Amino acid sequence: MTQEPNVKYSVDGKVATIQLNRAKAMNAMNTEVRQEILTAQAKAEADDAVRVVILTGSGTSFTSGTDLKELGDFATRKGMFDISVRDYKPIIDAITQSPKIYIAAINGVAGGVGLSIALSTDLAVMGESATCFAPFSNIGLVPDGGLSWLLLQHMGSKRAFAAIAQADMIDAATCRELGLVNKVVPDEDLRAEAAEWAAMLAERAPLSLSYAKKIMRAAHTQSHEQIALMESEYQMKCANSEDSGNAISAFFTKQKPVFKGR
């Protein structure tokens, strides 16, 4: 019997879906899962037809984070540093540095470094019964995957520290109020909503969205003046693109533009 993959990868038109597939283990990420996520991301990156990537889980969990059964293998302090830098940073970098748009479809629990991955995406939709939490203080650890920075950006210092110190479950409605996610939908509609949203975005101008993503990522750490200059640089690139020229012509002829990403 063929063993089910730990991570499923599929493509529908211009949308790729990366689905964690260890439902019985709450999609906890061990070495194999982390490697398979990176492999799936590389496939999406190499496919020019793919413009949007959905990240989601199976069963009742997006992902509970690192598989705690694996922690016994890290006998030295350097071991935990290695797993964070060697395994998780490339996954998160592949999201934040990709020209493609990433959407998290959060089903069930998004915990630990899994929450870091979810919050690193460009957009997020959450099932109404789903929850997020940073459980690190429960097991004597600190956040990883840049979660401290991510929570600070969304929640401010006091609420972010409370989320880390208390390890409270944050429900979907609160996540939306805090700006951790864009939408909350009925659990049974989550996959369809994410797919519809992704398909809609995939028909928009890919250069425009890719450059906007770069600008928004930079805006967290740069000044207003620096971002205005960056916008001017990318505006010139867009203005000289085939897509923009065709879209402006389509506007005057009242036709729907077709974007080719060039």
Would you give an account of this structure?
The structure is a single chain. This protein is an alpha/beta fold and 262 residues long. The chain has helices spanning 31-46, 77-96, 113-120, 147-155, 157-166, 172-178, 190-202, 206-219, 224-239, 242-253, and strands spanning 7-12, 15-20, 52-56, 61-63, 101-106, 109-111, 123-127, 131-133, 170-171, 183-185. A hairpin with a 2-residue loop joins strand 1 (7-12) and strand 2. The radius of gyration is 19 Å and the shape is globular. The model has no long low-confidence stretch (mean pLDDT 91).
Envelope shape:
globular
Whole-number radius of gyration? Answer: 19 Å
The number of helices is 10
What proportion strand? 15-25%
Helix content: 40-55%
User: How many strand elements?
Assistant: 10
Instruction: Please provide the ordered H/E string of secondary-structure elements.
Output: EEHEEHEEHEEHHEHEHHHH
Strand order of the largest sheet: 1-2-3-5-7-10
Q: What's the mean pLDDT score?
A: 91
Q: Could you say which structural class the secondary elements and strand pairing correspond to?
A: alpha/beta
The largest pleated sheet is described as: 6 strands, mixed
- Alpha-carbon distance between the termini? 45 Å
Give start-end ranges of low-pLDDT stretches. none
